[in-house]
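Hey team,

Sharing the tRNA uridine(34) hydroxylase run so nobody has to redo it. Sequence (309 residues) first:
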Amino acid sequence: MNLSPFQPEFRVAALYRFCRLDDHGSLRSPLAAFCCGQGIKGTLLLASEGINGTVAGRPEAISALIERLEAIPQLSGLDVKYSSAREMPFHRMKVRLKREIVTMGVDGIDPTASAGTHVEPSGWNALIADPDTVVIDTRNDYEVRLGTFAGAVDPQTRSFRDFPAWATEHREELTGRKVAMFCTGGIRCEKATAYVKSLGVDQVFHLKGGILKYLEDVPEGESLWRGECFVFDERVAVTHGLAEGEAELCRACRMPITPEERKSPKFREGISCERCHDLRTDEDRARYAERQRQVERAEALGLPMPIGG
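Structure output:
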């Protein structure tokens, strides 16, 4: 784990495992009680296909949670990426039951049986530098906008549910090529590569541990990553060494915005940004303004934030 110069208050764990978890419903209440008792916040998703989530807490609390999860036979062998945060990056703890732990919406895709070949971060640069390799960013458009690998294809999806249609449409362009796919932490690619293989594409690879592991392991001077990596918590984005980035969230549309975009005349803290300003009514902006006043008051008094997270 790459430690930042500051003394981190919280450890963040992004975790997942695809496995057969028929009794996932019975795990919800005990896990929620354990996390709340340990002061852990974030989200865990449970489905018959496994577990997925990102949580944060004191280092000893996160270690205790991972130990507890690893003790469940089906979950042993979790894929976990750790990083640090100066402040708690979540507002509450949620344990949810889902149909899928990452929603693609296609039946019959089993990453445990047919995912692409894992490529360690140390071997990723050579793979994507090969001119015969098609590099595909499987994340959504707003994530890609903040950063991606040099030369990567952006499918411009607004939801992971859109990816199968895009892949099917471009199947002929992928057939006979090496296809290298990546995502934030690795979980989305488990399904994306399995789907692309189901289309008859044979040489399919994906970045093990995702962008987060690459940014942790690969020195910035050797990196082919450009920009910041969006993360689904209050840090908004991270960069090389998993240091917190400069992007922030527009509280009106929940989309990431860069320091340059904050200079737009349509940007107002907590109320609007250039992307959503013209899509909202005056009534919407008045409501957001009142919420922003409540946020600023809570910050001044040290109270819990009156916003989701």
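The chain has ten helices and 15 strands.

Ping me if you want the raw files.
A.
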